[in-house]
Amino acid sequence: MTLIVRALVPTKVTLLGEHTVVYGEPAIVIALDKRLIIEMRRRNDNVITIRSSGLTIPNIEYILTPDSYPQVRVDSAIVSRFFSYIIQALSIVEEELSVRRKGVDILVESSLPPGVGLGTSAAISVGTIAAYSFLQGHVLEPREIARLGHRVELSVQGAASPMDTSATTFGGMLYIEPSRDIVEKLPITDIHIVVGYVPKKFTTAELVRQVRNLRNRYGELINPIIKVAGSIVKNARKALEKRSLEKLGELMNIFHGILEALGVVETEVARIVHVLRLAGALGAKMSGAGGGGAFVALARSKKDAETLRNVIKSLGASVVDAGIANEGLRIEQVGI
Ligand code: PMV
Asked: Residue 270 half-sphere exposure, CB side, CA atoms within 13 Å?
């Protein structure tokens, strides 16, 4: 029988702290029970094949002209970036564990599109690290998997905080503060969040670079803003612990203002966020790197959350139908 290993990895949404977490400030991130699956099947040679099913690739074009065969065009930058996380993760496992390449057929299954700020690249990195190291005979601790997953993101993107790889490895709601090496699970499962997304126009690396350039040009203005962002997140943690949802919502709105100041809020997301507030959200903000992509709203009740989901659909955006994933990364061995 062939050895098959499957890593089931949650995706994530950033509640607060994106971008400023890159400068060591805290963030609160929630793992979503919309799991990405990385399946690896051992081969008898040392060839690697990668296939994806159900993964929505944006901007596919099908061109049919009378005098030629139909042509399919995809945004090859997005596709090759997606595969580069896997290639990098395989190399990092081989280097860290000092093992030789083993041939595997890799299948990636995801119902979320890559690169909209919902942690698919972190999930792919973490899932590949976990599955490939298992296949190589090493069962790594979650902390180690998160560390190596972060290394993958750093080498593919150039800059990354450990936020997304921590969320997708450990699951639950996490408070993370990179400058003090803190990753804590918050025991909160009962808030109603609503998540949606629109296509993203820039990559995370480009947006992180854009913020860095702004900070280089206006250090004396942007550095205090980054510090204030950290205080907002600390206050939000207290509000969450006291279940002070109105306050948490207000802090989300304020944080959205910070992201506006940093120049990463795209027009369509800005409009959706404002409509969601008018429709009764306690708070609404963009989420992730920005430039389009994901947004998150806080609802007072399950019923209000449903109303907000309908509002998102009526605005032509996509809804992520998922709750908090309390359990993080899971590994299953299918064959032997
Ligand atoms: O890749 P995204 O859209 O989930 O955004 C990542 C969040 C940033 O704070 C912008 C970057 C990082 O590595 O934390």
From this structure: 11
- Between the CA of 115 and the centroid of ligand 1 the distance, in Å, is 10
CATH homologous superfamily of 188-320 equals GHMP kinase, C-terminal domain (3.30.70.890)
Q: Is 163 in the pocket of ligand 1 (CB under 6 A)?
A: yes
Burial 81-98 (b: 16+ CB within 10 A, else e): bbebbbebbbebbbebee
The model carries a pTM of 0.91
Class at the top of the CATH hierarchy for domain 4-185+325-335: alpha beta
Give the distance (Å) from ligand 1 centre to CA of residue 119. Answer: 8
Pocket test for ligand 1, best of 112, 120, 161, 287 (most atoms within 8 A of CB): 161
Q: What is the pLDDT along the chain (336 residues), one digit of tens a residue?
A: 688 999 999 999 999 999 999 999 999 999 999 999 999 999 888 888 988 876 566 666 776 766 777 677 776 666 777 788 999 999 999 999 999 999 999 999 988 877 788 999 999 999 999 999 999 999 999 999 999 999 999 999 888 899 999 999 999 999 999 999 999 999 988 899 999 999 988 888 889 999 999 999 999 999 999 999 999 999 999 999 999 999 999 999 999 999 999 999 999 999 999 999 999 999 999 999 999 999 999 999 999 999 999 999 999 999 999 999 999 999 999 876
Q: Which of 204, 266, 283 is nearest to 21 (CA)?
A: 204
**Which residues belong to CATH 3.30.230.10 in the chain?**
4-185+325-335
Which residues are the active-site residues?
164
Q: What is the C-alpha radius of gyration for the chain, rounded to an integer number of angstroms?
A: 20
Q: For 46, which DSSP code?
A: S
Query: What one-character DSSP code corresponds to residue 22?
Result: G
CATH 3.30.70.890 range(s) for the chain read 188-320
